Amino acid sequence: MSMHRDGPASPLFRPVSFDGNFTFEELAAHQDVSAELAQAAPFAHSGSCVAWGIPFEIGRPVLLKDQPLTVKISPTAARWFVFMHASDVRRLSPDQNGLISPMRGIGQLNEHAANYVLIYDDGSEERVEIRRRHQVGSLLFRWGEHCTQAVAARKPRPLALSEADQPKPISNAADYRWPIGWGIRQQQALFEEGPWMNFVWAFENPHSDKAVEAIRFEPVSGSLIISGVSAGDSRSMPLRWEKRKKALLTMPPEASFDSTLDQHGLFSQIQLDLGQVISASPRLVYPMEHWEKTRQNLQPEASPTEIVVEYAAHPDACFHLADRTISISDVEDSVLQNEPILQSILPANQSVILRVVEERTNKPVPVKLHVHGPAGEYLAPTNGNRNPNPRWFENYSTEHWQGLHLSTYISGQTTIELPLGDVYMEITKGFEVKPIRRKFHITRETELITVELEKVLHWREEGWVTADTHVHFLAPATAMLEGAAEGVNVINLLASQWGEMMSNVGDFDGRTTFGSRAAGGDGEFLVRIGTENRQRVLGHISLLGYSGNMIVPLAAGGPDESAVGDTVNVLITEWARQCKKQGGLVVLPHFPDPRMEGAATIVLGEADAVEMMSFIDYYSGIDAYSLSDWYRYLNNGYHIPAVAGTDKMSAEFAVGLTRTYARIPGHREFSHETWMDAVRAGHTFVTYGPLLDLNVDGKPMGGRIGLSSSGGTVNISWNLASVIVPMTRIDLIVNGEVRESRTLKPWQDAGSWSVRFEKSSWIALLVRAKYDDKPEMIAAHSSAVMIDVEGSRLFAAADALTILDQIEGSIAYIDTIGTRAEAKRYKEMRLMLQSAYRRLHNQMHQMGYHHPHTPGTHHSEHD
């Protein structure tokens, strides 16, 4: 039996004890009940129970089948009598063709099941009809057959988002709970079922001034099991909750709030009886007084003592704290001003249309939106998540979780419920539009808010387009919305394999560029499905924009990229070569990791770009580790451009957080194909905010300058601008070292240098930037311009040796611990790696550098 308690009991109700005609053990063996009831009987509620905040004492239940039964109770006067009961399974009677008429459904909607009769102490009676799926439901619940006037005995409860945070389900008969899967947890709420479903129905007693001394149960059709009765005096229907609200809980300075849920889905330090706590999280403290002067994406502070509690409840409900009980009416009527342990937060019930438009055209534009109220509470649009899930591959919607700062993406217009008074809004759109932080005062007359965006920088008009080379899990339409809201023109959405899981493979067709004019879009914001093909040791490769059949397998070599037992039957270099044959762009993602076979891919000329990224961190900037690895290849003459991608895999990532800017050459029309051409040509820079342009003797980023054997001087000019993060310094990088440096004006600057070169070199620009409250970061970096001095060749022996080490490591892996493919395939892969090894090895010898050889790399035949 189960002593079920779904929260604390309301002091307004008291259990009414009675002695029925059977025990649950006897019911399980009773010949006149269904087999389903007999099997479920061990899981029925019994003992001291609480359902929907109403207490019940359940001993011997009433089995109501053929004969009326009267039970005596202690004389009780109350406005409400609440019954916990269930209907035994009622069989349907199909005809010889399997059809049912009349069709009431399994729950037998509106079938008269019984009468309940209150017998007063003056001898008078009050009879009420009990009808199936109105006042009572079946103990074996069929989905879609809820009751209209009764509720399932377990009230809805919040759910932890992650399995790691979820209490283990109770599986014993004492308190059975169904296991809760990952998908259900994304709802963050549960109407719980079980092997035995009781229903709670509240009857309003028309003679509340008279004491009831007995209850008669009269059967009409089928069988009912009445488990418990309670009586109370709430002012209105006790099972009907009001619209959700919020309150601010203040903890003592020495206390801390435990936000984990117990096995019943309840918070240990704050609970409701006639209601439910939906969520409890620290109050977020924003700079309210200076909101409009502070920067975008500024992290709030989490209050150590104040908790924002969201709840839904009956107006007579009480909060139950560790040391006291407080009625909701006192909280909402501000009775507790002298002791503000619980304070009401103004409800968000003013429906407002928000439009965000371009400054000159008044055209709605997609943006990223954040709104919070006076207590720091996040206010989501009516179609947005109030509590987004930041975890990997979970609950994908259009939210962005940046630490404690929550945002959502809107198409340019949305409806949002706001509290009266001041609300605080942040609107951003990429790196060329001025971020907005505004305070609005909401009144009952506020129905529409229109915000105009000012585009400060105009690099798109000069031929530059932005891109994120690495996005996962979004639907193409969602990716397009988020890209447009972040000002990212090209989203490369990558299908892939993750062990036994496949992602976005159904979105790939090898031909469609979503958002293009050919696909019915306006051609300004595009989504193209490519693939990220992956091996745990050898590396990953992003194959963008290719046409035709999907390049498979998507993963190889075993977990966690591919499945256990998969062989190493393909090289990332082979994937890259196939992508180029199919017209695609090859990117080494999250460069340089996994740091192995990508070296061979670059040496063999099969990689088009390397990808800079910094995962979810807004403030770390471009990783110097990635740059250092890229510089090795430039130092040896591999003129490979830089791009940027986020590897977005959860709501913690924003598309285009770091992004690629590429300039479409000449007057060519923007398309995914011309964007890929611009990347291949190296007309790119990567950035966290600052925009840059570089000109070297008339050549753009990615260009080559030829000088005579005596060398020469080149003129380097640059132009910088930022609207997101203040710039601090620019460095001229020559062969991986800082040659020139200059302090920058924070928002716009330009300059030039004249530099002499006597040997072949490469040059690039590195821009540093800094928020006031954060350390300086590498915020932007250009692709390289190559300076070719006749008779001189770019070569750095130490860097070349490290590249060779990686190729040797790839050979060692497939020779030893990599799960071996069939012999012919293994030898083909080894020959390809050997060719990359020999190409670089021979170059090193030509440059006069002799080095020790790793055993095994000089031989082409291995077992």
Explain how this protein is built.
The protein is 13% helix and 35% strand. It has 863 residues and is mainly β. The strands form ten sheets. The chain has an 18-stranded mixed beta sheet that branches. A hairpin with a 3-residue loop joins strand 19 and strand 20. Helix 10 (797-815) runs antiparallel to helix 11 (823-846). The longest helix is centred in the C-terminal third of the chain and has 24 residues, at 823-846.
**Helix count from the secondary structure assignment:** 11
Note the beta-strand portion: 35-45%
CATH topological fold name of the largest domain: TIM Barrel
The structural class is: mainly beta
Using the CA coordinates, give the radius of gyration: 35 Å
In short:
With 863 residues, this protein is mainly beta.
Tags for this entry?
Immunoglobulin-like, disordered C terminus, mainly beta, single chain, 18-stranded mixed β-sheet, 863 residues
SSE layout and pairing:
Blueprint: E1 13-16, H1 24-28, H2 35-40, E2 47-51, E3 54-58, E4 62-64, E5 69-76, E6 80-87, E7 112-120, E8 125-131, E9 150-152, E10 157-158, H3 182-185, E11 189-190, E12 199-204, E13 212-219, E14 224-232, E15 245-250, E16 270-272, E17 275-285, E18 301-313, E19 318-321, E20 325-327, H4 328-332, E21 342-345, E22 348-358, E23 367-372, E24 399-402, E25 405-410, E26 413-419, E27 421-428, E28 436-442, E29 448-453, E30 464-471, H5 476-485, E31 490-498, E32 501-503, E33 513-514, E34 526-535, E35 539-544, E36 555-556, H6 572-581, E37 585-588, H7 598-603, E38 609-612, H8 624-634, E39 642-644, E40 659-663, H9 672-680, E41 684-687, E42 691-696, E43 704-707, E44 712-721, E45 727-734, E46 737-743, E47 748-757, E48 761-769, E49 777-782, E50 785-789, H10 797-815, H11 823-846
Parallel strand pairs: 22-29, 30-31, 31-34, 34-36, 37-38, 38-39, 43-50
Antiparallel strand pairs: 1-14, 2-3, 4-14, 5-13, 6-12, 6-14, 7-8, 7-13, 9-12, 10-11, 15-18, 15-21, 16-19, 17-18, 19-20, 22-26, 23-25, 23-27, 24-25, 27-28, 30-40, 31-32, 33-34, 34-35, 35-37, 40-41, 41-49, 42-44, 44-47, 45-46, 45-48, 48-49, 48-50
Helix pairs in contact: 10-11
